[in-house]
Specification:
The structure is a single chain. This protein is α+β, with helices and mostly antiparallel strands. It has a single domain, classed as CheC-like (Chemotaxis protein chec), CATH 3.40.1550.10. Strand 6 and strand 7 form a beta hairpin. The mean pLDDT is 88. The chain has 4 helices and 7 strands. Strands 1, 2, 3, 4, 5, 6 and 7 form a 7-stranded antiparallel sheet that branches. Helix 1 crosses helix 3.
Length: 155
């Protein structure tokens, strides 16, 4: 197994920045990126979208955001219905978009699943494949969210 590189991580940073710029015309700020450990284990918010990674890779990509951030995002898209189902769809769509952009970069050897969404905080110890997943903290408007990249190559 081999690790993904810093250049590989930038694919995810660019994907999340591009998503917010395209959808809202307002760039999300990257607050920081780090390897999770101890109390810096991936911060979770109200809703989480998960994309399982397969093929010559294993692991997952997660996007976790507060409910109010997702509501503001939907409102910026002129969506007036803010049901739990629509908020879960939004968090899943963001995770899917980030993983889909990564798949373009990594190629057909990376399989991605359909989004799974959660409205309860994930139990990281039961989910992660890496001892220390990569975490990208973002801020859009005044709301923080996290993108967790928990993947490794199987070569």
């Amino acid at each position: 197994m081999s690790d993904i590189s810093e250049q590989d991580i930038h694919v995810f940073v660019d994907a999340i920045s591009h998503y917010f710029t395209q959808i809202t015309r307002e760039k999300a700020k990257i607050k920081g990126a780090f390897l999770a450990q101890g109390e810096k284990f991936p911060p979770t918010f109200d809703l989480t979208g998960i994309i399982k990674i397969s093929g010559k890779f294993r692991g997952s990509v997660y996007f976790s955001a507060p409910r109010v951030m997702l509501s503001r995002l939907l409102l910026s898209m002129h969506e007036s219905h803010l049901s739990d189902e629509q908020l879960l769809d939004a968090v899943g769509e963001i995770a899917n978009t980030v993983a889909g952009n990564a798949r373009k970069y990594f190629g057909e050897n990376m399989g991605i699943s359909v989004p799974k969404t959660m409205s309860t905080p994930p139990k990281w110890s039961e989910l992660v494949v890496r001892a220390r997943p990569y975490v990208i903290m973002i801020n859009w408007k005044q709301y923080d969210a996290s993108v967790v990249i928990d993947i490794e190559r199987l070569d």
